[in-house]
Amino acid sequence: MSFELIQKVNNEQKKAQVVDVRSGDTVKVYQKIKEGNKERIQMFEGVVIRTDNKGQHTSRITVRKVASGVGVEKSFLLHSPLVEKVEIVRRSKVRRNFLSYLRQRSGKGARLTSVQFDREAVNSVRDVHAEEEAERIKAEKAAEAEAKAAEKAAAEAELEAKQAEVAARHEDA
Predict the structure, then answer these.
(1) Are the C-beta atoms of residues 57 and 68 closer than 8 Å to each other?
(2) CB–CB of 23/98 below 8 Å?
(3) CA 53 – CA 62 distance, rounded (Å)
(4) For 97-111, how does the pLDDT look when each residue is reduced to its tens digit (9 = 90+)?
(5) What span, in angstroms and rounded, lies between the C-alpha atoms of 58 and 69?
(6) 41 has pLDDT over 90
């Protein structure tokens, strides 16, 4: 019974669909980043050197890129709510799941042979929940801006009333 309950909770955490990412793919991962009360989306582009737990809610990819001559690796949980979307840019022919040998190589030695694939078909994954979340955030920001504008208009009206009162006092004197 407890295993079924755990399974149910895990399945609720999964996204409806995720892109079929494989080792050797060059991907763009769009990730939400919260800084204080602001939220933005940051892109990380690199080669997938590892995929783990593919069919499960803990499925993870490790992406590697070279930035300013330094190798940078990041792991992303595909079903995480912080991962907005994963877009496959290029697909390569590899015969392993874990491409650790790319760490020791640089330049031409780190190249992978690309393979033709249908980019539109592979990347056409719609996550309804994420789209609803984006709409909600957009509506929240619009309501916040509207409230700020109303507050500013009220402050301006108050200032104008004070100015009119001061002008009336000067005319009486």
Answers:
(1) no
(2) yes
(3) 12
(4) 888 887 787 777 777
(5) 31
(6) no
pTM for this entry: 0.62
Task: Of 73, 82, 86, 77, give the one whose Cα is nearest residue 58.
Answer: 77
Handedness of CA 58, 52, 128, 132 (dihedral sign): positive
Q: In residues, how long is the chain?
A: 173
Asked if 31 contacts 82 with a C-beta cutoff of 8 angstroms, the reply is yes
HEC secondary structure over the chain: CHHHHHHHHHHHHCCCCCCCCCCCCEEEEEEEEEECCEEEEEEEEEEEEEEECCCCCCCEEEEEEEECCEEEEEEEECCCCCEEEEEEEEEECCCCCCCHHHHCCCHHHHCCCEECCCHHHHHCCCCHHHHHHHHHHHHHHHHHHHHHHHHHHHHHHHHHHHHHHHHHHHHHC
| Residue 65, CA atoms < 13 Å, CB-side half-sphere | 13
* Residue whose token pair is 């793919």: 25
- Residue 150: pLDDT over 90: yes
pLDDT at 157: 92
Per-residue CA distances from 108 to 25, 101, 102, 105, 111 (Å):
17, 14, 11, 8, 5
Whole-angstrom distance, CA of residue 120 vs CA of residue 173: 77
pLDDT tens profile 162-173: 998 888 888 876
